[in-house]
Design goal:
Blueprint lengths: L15 H19 L11 E6 L5 H12 L3 E6 L11 H11 L2 E5 L3 H9 L5 E3 L7 H15 L6 E5 L4 H13 L2 E5 L8 H4 L7 E3 L3 H5 L4 E4 L11 H7 L7 H6 L5 E4 L11 H4 L6 H21 L5
Parallel strand pairs: 1-2, 1-3, 3-4, 5-6, 5-8, 6-7, 8-9
Helix pairs in contact: 1-5, 1-12, 2-12, 3-4, 5-12
Bound molecules: phosphoric acid mono(formamide)ester and norvaline (NVA).
Length: 308
Amino acid sequence: MATPIKHYLQFSDLTAGEYAWLFERAAAIKKKFKAYEKYHPLADRTLAMIFEKASTRTRVSFEAGMYQLGGSVVHLTTGDSQLGRAEPIEDSAKVISRMVDLVMIRTFGQDKIARFAEHSRVPVINGLTNEFHPCQILADIFTYIEHRGSIQGKVVAWVGDGNNMANTWLQAAELLGFTVHLSTPSGYEVDQAIAGIRSTDSYKVFKDPMDACRGADLVTTDVWTSMGYEAENEARKKAFADWCVDTDMMRVAKPDALFMHCLPAHRGEEVEADVIDGPQSVVWDEAENRMHAQKALMEYLLLGKVAG
Ligand code: CP
Ligand code: NVA
């Protein structure tokens, strides 16, 4: 019997054991990259990347990463493909997945990527949906481990919107055994059902973002308005005014706390320049690690646990 296809549609699609493997592989693959060592396990494999929303990091990290692994990429957007002319998602999935080995999709609703995966012959990776951003949290935790070791038992403070990033942090906390301190403005809370987590054990809710940051090992935030929610921009600017990560918040966190932001960032909105450009910020490592972590992910989805 053929092995079932492994998709990566949300963080909970992999086990803690699989993450341990991916973090190890990401470190090994990064080391090869830094040493200019050729590593082409995905020679002759093709990745299709479908973008229905804008991107810098996701596009560059997947595209550069796939070439570095010896493969090639096809880049599609809503505007330059039949996806924008309402070809059914199921038909697109059937066609695209007959021609490539792997598909990465950035889109709106999670239901869309789930439907695509259901009709795909090849693994599908979530490159961001309204609900989740698993590749980002994969890279963020890899970055945390590089700087501070295991994230197990640690406290991650989330300051801001109860969005795709917050949902994914919650899934990761439940799976990998750490706690998220959540502080969101009223009306922008995380919905546990949408986040897809089983219990409230791995997170605590705080009205005041200062309290969420107290004693945290990692402080992180994201834009006030995510892609797809632009019509709410003005209302969000008012609601989120006190949810700006500043040096006072970093001061009440642990002295060796890190600051992360998935980027793009808006200095003076969700984060002060002194924090994102300050000594505790690891945002550039975080961005670079998207590529190394996703190379490990692509290798794993296509080849399983390989040595080398
Ligand atoms: N963090 C992130 O996913 O960035 P892009 O939107 O630039 O891909
Ligand atoms: N929450 C943001 C992340 C961007 C990488 C968004 O969805 O727009």
